[in-house]
From TrEMBL:
NCBIfam families membership: pgsA (TIGR00560)
One Pfam entry name: CDP-OH_P_transf
Topology in the lipid bilayer: Multi-pass membrane protein
Name of this chain's protein: CDP-diacylglycerol--glycerol-3-phosphate 3-phosphatidyltransferase
Cross-referenced InterPro entries: CDP-alcohol_PTase-I, CDP-OH_P_trans, CDP-OH_PTrfase_TM_dom, CDP_ALCOHOL_P_TRANSF_CS, Phosphatidylglycerol_P_synth
Primary localisation category: membrane
Length: 200
């Protein structure tokens, strides 16, 4: 009787990881495009917007492909969230450095993203909090707002991007507070379960 075939493990060079690496490589390219010609040339800003948009699109597909086709790897688990935060962080910092976006907006968004990442590590042994609808809406609002700020818009579109960014900031804070609440509840339940096991 022949032994059952071993379950294959996804290799490093799969489509999901390649998309993640493309996103990481786009970060320095994006920064260079944003800084070209003093940072306010409409043509170079359009190229920067294209790089940012490609990065956002790859973010939509790499995680879904990894889960659907069993391509989840340790590299992907680490690199994917880093790539997400790197492109968004680079965009926010560039916009604030060019005086196109108030620094407090950048600080609020980055503090939330970094804080929630640290929170995940804090509760990881007790469980995983799934992405909420509000969290996905927050990501969409951030992506659209930042993309509009990268472009040199005027008139009604400039006003529109202000309100989309305002909505993104509100969603960023609200979903961050909700995540903290869920993380605290999850940790308390996990610690209570551990105490019960020790008693038994």
């Amino acid at each position: 009787m022949s032994p059952a075939p071993a379950v294959g493990q996804a290799g490093l060079w799969n489509i999901a990881n390649v998309l993640t690496m493309v996103r990481l490589l786009l970060v320095p390219a994006f920064v260079l495009l944003m800084a070209a010609q003093g940072g306010h040339d409409p043509a170079w800003r359009s190229f920067a917007w294209a790089a940012f948009t490609i990065a956002m699109i790859t973010d939509l597909f790499d995680g879904e492909l990894a889960r659907r086709y069993d391509l989840v790897t340790d590299f992907g688990k680490i690199a994917d969230p880093i790539a997400d935060k790197a492109i968004m962080g680079a965009a926010l910092i560039c916009l604030s450095a060019l005086d196109d976006l108030p620094w407090w907006v950048t600080i609020v968004i980055l503090a939330r993203e970094i804080g929630i990442t640290l929170m995940r590590f804090w509760v990881i042994r007790h469980g995983v909090i799934p992405a909420s609808r509000g969290g996905k809406l927050k990501t969409l609002a951030q992506g659209v707002a930042v993309g509009m700020y990268i472009l040199t818009l005027t008139g009604p579109l400039a006003t529109l991007r202000f309100w989309i960014m305002a909505a993104a900031v509100v969603l960023t804070v609200a979903t961050g507070l909700d995540y903290v609440k869920q993380a605290i509840v999850l940790r308390r339940r996990g610690l209570a379960a551990e105490r019960e096991q020790r008693v038994q």
